[in-house]
Amino acid sequence: MSRWRHPLLILAAALMLLPILWAALVSTRPQDAIIGARLLTMPSLDAIAANYGRAVTASPLFGFIGNGIAVCSLILFFQVLIMVPAGYALAKLRFPGRETLWGGVLLGLMVPAPVLAMPLFVMVAMLGLMDSLPALVLPWVVSSLGIFLMRQFFRRVPDEIIEAARLDGLSELELLVRVLLPLARPTLGAFAIISLVAHWNELYWPSIVVTSAERATPPFGVMLFQTQEAGTEYGALMAGALIIALPLVAAFLLLQRRFIEGLVAMK
Amino acid sequence: MSDLALAAPLSRPLPKGILLAGPAALLMLLLQIGPLVLVVCAAFTDWQLGGEAPNFVGLDNFRALIADHDFQASVLVTARYTLMVVPGALLLGLGLAMLLQGARRGRTVYQTIFFLPYIATLAAMSIAWQMLLHPSFGPVNQGLAALGLPVANWLRDENTALPVLALIGIWHETGFAMVFFLAALTSVPTELHDAARIDGLGGGWDRFWLVTAPHIAPIALFVLVVLTAHAVMVFDTVALLTQGGPGNATRVLLFVIYQEGFSFFRTNVAATATVFFLAITLTLGMLQLRLGRRGGAA
C-alpha cells in the first residue's frame, strides 16, 4: 500500500489538474497549432498576447469580474448585517415568535435556491428590476445558513459575558458590535467563504434575470463568451475561462486552509 | 434601562428580540416563505406568465406532468446522473482521503489540488473540459486514436453525453467528499488502531472494516446525502456543454424547469416540476440536517 501511495496521489493530482493545465496550454498556442493538434511545440509570446488580448476585448471580461465582486460583496454585507442580530436574538433573547422564526430558519436551510427562482423571477419582473444589480443581490440578502451558524455560535457564548457587558451599561447594539462580533470572527470568516464561493460560481439565477453583457456575472459571462463568434477561437476562449476562474482560485490558494475549514463548517 | 421599561408599561418598547430579529423575519417572509407558497400555489393553477388570470385546476398539472414522457425521461436522466456521480465521488473521495491520511509529505499540497475543482468556477471549467473532449483535436480523442482505440464525439453522442457529464461531476465533487473523510479519518483514535494490532488484526482490510469503517460511517452517510443533493441540482455543465441534448439525453430536472419557466414561460408546468423537485430536495435536506447535527460539534 505505502509503496503505491505517492504514485497514486501524483496520478490523481494530475487528473484533477488536467482540464486546467490543458486550458492553460491551449491559451498559449496560436489557433493553427490548436486546430492542427500541434500543441507540444513551444508556446509563443505572440500567441499568448493575441489570445489573452482577444479574450479581454471580445467581451467585457473585467466587467464580468467587477460585477461578480460587486454582487458578492453586497450580498455578503447585507447577509452579515441581518444574520448577526437575528442569530443573537435567537440564541440569547426571549421574544414572541422566536420558535416560529427558528422553524423558518430550519426550513430555509432545506429549500435550495433553484426552487425559489421561479417566484422570485416573477417578483423581479413585476417590479421592473430585470437585468439590474438589485435583481442579482436582493433575493439572497437573508441567509438561513448564516442565521443558523450565528445562533449556534452565540449559544456557546457564556451568559456571564453578556451580563457583565449589560452591567457596564452597554446597550444591546453596543454589546453586539463591541463584545460579541469580535468573538464571532472565525464563524463570520467561515460563512464569508461559503457565501463568496456560492455566489461567485452561481450560474442559474444570473442566467434567469440577466439579459445583457453589462450586468453579467463571471459564470454567465462565460456562457455569453462561449456563444459569441470568439467562441471558436479556442486559445482566446481558454484564456477567458482561466481569467474568469482566477480570482476565486487565487483567493483559495492564499487562504486554502480557511476555505476548507469554512466549507466543512457548513455541516 | 429595563427598570425604566417596567415602570412605564404603557409606552413599553418592543422586546429587543423583535427589533434585532425583525428584519431577518420580514425578509425571510418576503424572499423565502412567500415565494415558496407562491410556487406551490401556482402548481395548482393554469397560470402562464403574462397570460390571463389563473384558474384553480386541482391536480391536473401533476397528472399531466407524471404522464408526460419528456418529464419521465428527465427524471430518469437525473437519476442516472446521480447514480453515477454520487458513488463515484464518494468512493474516490474516501480513497484519496485514505491515501492522504498516511502520507507524511505533501499532504497540504495534495489536499489543495484535490479541492481546487470544487472551488474553480464550474461554468469556466466546463469550457476547459469541452476542449479536452473536442472530437477532432482534443487530447482525449488524440490519445485514443494514437492507441488505435475508437474515438467518439463525447458530448454529441447520446450514449456518452450523460456519462461524460457525470465524469465532470465526479471531478468537481471528489475533493469536497475527500475533505469530510479526511477530517473523520484523522479523528479515529490511534488507540483503536493499536488495540486492533495487538488483537492480531494485521491486515489493512480487516482493520478498515472493524476500526475505520464504523468510525466514519456517520460522515459517509452525511456526505452521501449532500452529494445526492448536489447531483439532483446539476445545471451548469448541462447549460454550457449540451443544452439537454443530444435528443433528451442530458435533459436533467433543473434544466427542464429552466426551459419551461424561463424560455417557454409555461409557468404552471415549471411550478409543478419545481414542487416535484422540492419534494426530493426537502427529503434530502431533512436527512442532511439530522445527520449534520448528530455529527457536528453544535
Automatic annotation (TrEMBL), chain A:
Q: Which InterPro entries match?
A: MetI-like, MetI-like_sf
Give the location in the cell: Cell membrane
Q: Which GO terms describe its cellular component?
A: plasma membrane
What residue intervals traverse the membrane? 61-89, 101-127, 133-154, 175-198, 234-255
Q: How does it sit in the membrane?
A: Multi-pass membrane protein
Q: GO biological process: any one? A: transmembrane transport
CDD domains annotated for this entry?
TM_PBP2
Is Transcription regulation among this UniProt entry's keywords?
Answer: no
- Stated family: Belongs to the binding-protein-dependent transport system permease family.
- This chain's protein is named Carbohydrate ABC transporter permease
Organism field: Rhodovarius crocodyli
UniProtKB/TrEMBL annotation, chain B:
Q: Name one GO biological process term.
A: transmembrane transport
Pfam families, alphabetized: BPD_transp_1
- Membrane topology label: Multi-pass membrane protein
| Membrane-crossing residue ranges in chain numbering | 20-45, 81-100, 112-132, 164-188, 208-233, 269-287
Q: Which domain of life is it from?
A: Bacteria
Q: Which GO terms describe its cellular component?
A: plasma membrane
Give all residue intervals belonging to the ABC transmembrane type-1 domain.
Answer: 75-288
Keywords, A to Z? Answer: Cell membrane, Membrane, Transmembrane, Transmembrane helix, Transport
Instruction: List the signal peptide residues.
Output: none
RNA-binding as UniProt keyword: no
Compartments annotated for it: namely: Cell membrane
Please indicate if the UniProt record lists Amino-acid biosynthesis as a keyword: no
Instruction: Give the family this protein belongs to, as stated in its UniProt record.
Output: Belongs to the binding-protein-dependent transport system permease family.
- In Swiss-Prot or TrEMBL terms, this protein is called Sugar ABC transporter permease
Q: What is the lineage of its organism?
A: Bacteria, Pseudomonadati, Pseudomonadota, Alphaproteobacteria, Acetobacterales
